[in-house]
Design goal:
The protein has 16 helices and 19 strands. The protein folds into three domains: about 160 residues, 2-Layer Sandwich (Aconitase, domain 3), CATH 3.30.499; about 110 residues, Aconitase, Domain 2, CATH 3.40.1060.10; about 180 residues, 2-Layer Sandwich (Aconitase, domain 3). The protein is of the alpha/beta class. The N and C termini lie far apart (about 45 Å).
């Protein structure tokens, strides 16, 4: 396993064989499922009279369709209730561990697996959700998959995949005050493009990443997919091990020492060969806001919306559509843009450290008149911890609503939706047209701290002014 990247090592360790198509049949160590992409997969199993091969390697929760205000059953949304019932029945039928609402362990699938220690270095992980790349923060290779692939993993615990190239993305130096992991990944996607990662796994490295907490690394890896990469990862180190030690599913005693020794061996070698290397200077990254309809259409908060001429010819049609849809004109400052809704949450930025940082800026301030602002913890555990620290009281005193755990307004498959052409300051990961529940709603992606700054001023604000 010398001269290899972590990606190469983990891939080779999980290779079952080479298929006639030339693809690798890859063993999947952990399969995470939720209520949106699994009902059809289970239906396909039943049609073929197939069993779940390794039910102990599958873990289920509910997140996308969960209401964050009234969680009484049956849900008001009939389709959401049907999805819930389908998942509950399938988990019971096939003996799958299920973290349901009120269990104390329910939450966004990409929050609950790390916090319970299910996600570990050197694993292959799959989930019917594009942001499965989040788990790469632990030195795992994690893929978002489609419904037919969910069926394949349930039935065979394997996937047919083509091996990816590996791009090393180094970020070096110290981030300036008011600049967060979210700004780093938005900056990377802005520079490399939303299609820049097609065919690649992204290895995130450099002194900036080494200094980040696990939750910050999860934010970075979460949005690998928005840059076109199939997965993103960070090599495991002491930060990783410290985070995992003592968690529910982490090895204990002698097995812990063996596991750490093993995990360390998976680190990309010093002489590993990469298909591409890109280097960024942390000092050049500012608080970043998206202005358009892709996560790559972002600018520093003190910049103006770019001119059409500044784009590559191939990107001009999307830019033109972004101006039209967002009702923005080139040359206009993004700072000062009025906002209607402010959302803190999602699998990108709904973790405890995100809520703590946001609360620092909310404390002693008040949400502006006419702005709807709410906070949605990513899991029931995070909610409980935040409440134990009094963060809920800080947000509520500032005029934010404090909600139950779920995906909420990240993609609005639940009651949390934009109305009309409202503008949302959002800590989530996608700003596509209609993403937040209204076909004309507009989304500006930013860090949780920046969302608070927008909420209290009623407009896009440079969070550094609140420091």
């Amino acid at each position: 396993m010398s001269n290899g990247t972590l990606f190469d090592k983990v891939w080779d360790l999980h290779r079952v064989g080479t298929l006639p198509s030339g693809q690798t049949q890859l063993f999947i160590g952990l399969h995470l499922i939720h209520e949106v992409t699994s009902p059809q997969a289970f239906a396909m199993l039943r049609e073929r009279n197939l069993q779940v091969l390794y039910s102990d390697r599958t873990v289920a929760t509910v997140d996308h369709i969960v209401p964050t205000e009234n969680q009484a059953r049956p849900f008001v949304d009939i389709l959401a209730e049907e999805m819930m019932q389908a998942l509950e029945k399938s988990c019971k039928d096939y003996g799958i561990r299920f973290y349901n609402i009120g269990s104390g362990d329910q939450g966004i699938v990409h929050a609950i697996a790390p916090e319970q220690g299910l996600t570990q270095p050197g694993m292959t992980i799959a989930c019917g959700d594009s942001h499965t790349s989040t788990h790469g923060a632990f030195g795992a290779i994690a893929f978002g998959i489609g419904t037919s692939q969910v069926r394949d993993v349930l039935a065979s615990q394997t996937l047919a995949l083509s091996k990816l190239k590996v791009r090393r993305i180094e970020v070096n130096g110290e981030l300036r005050p008011g600049v967060y992991a979210k700004d780093v990944i938005l900056h990377i996607i802005r520079k490399l493009g939303v299609k820049g990662g097609v065919g690649y796994a992204y290895e995130f490295a450099g002194s900036t990443l080494a200094a980040m907490s696990m939750e910050e690394r999860m934010t970075i890896c979460n949005m690998s997919i928005e840059g076109g990469a199939r997965c993103g990862y960070v090599n495991p180190d002491q930060v990783t091990f410290d985070y995992l030690q003592g968690r529910d599913f982490a090895p204990i005693g002698e097995n812990w020492d063996k596991a750490v020794s093993w995990w360390e061996s998976l680190h990309s070698d010093a002489d590993a060969v990469y298909d591409d290397v890109v280097i960024f200077d942390a000092a050049e990254i500012s608080p970043t806001v998206t202005w358009g309809i892709t996560p790559g259409q972002g600018i520093a908060v003190d910049e103006t919306i770019p001119s059409l001429e500044s784009f590559e010819i191939s990107d001009r049609d999307v830019a033109t559509e972004a101006y039209r849809y967002m009702e923005f004109s080139p040359g206009t400052p993004i700072k000062g843009t009025k906002v209607d809704v402010c959302f803190i949450g999602s699998c990108t930025n709904g973790r405890l450290s995100d809520l703590r940082e946001a609360a620092k800026f909310a404390q002693g301030r008040q949400v502006a008149n006419g702005v709807k602002a709410f906070v949605v913890p990513a899991s029931e555990r995070i909610k409980k911890q935040a409440e134990a620290e009094g963060l809920d009281k800080i947000f509520q005193a500032a005029g934010f609503e404090w909600r139950e755990a779920g995906c909420s307004m990240c993609l609005a498959m639940n009651p949390d939706k934009l109305q009309g052409n409202q503008i949302s300051a959002s800590s989530s990961n996608r700003n596509f047209k209609g993403r937040q529940g209204s076909s004309t709603g507009r989304t500006l992606l930013m860090s949780p701290a920046m969302v608070v700054a927008a909420a209290v001023n009623g407009k896009v604000t440079d969070v550094r002014e609140l420091l």
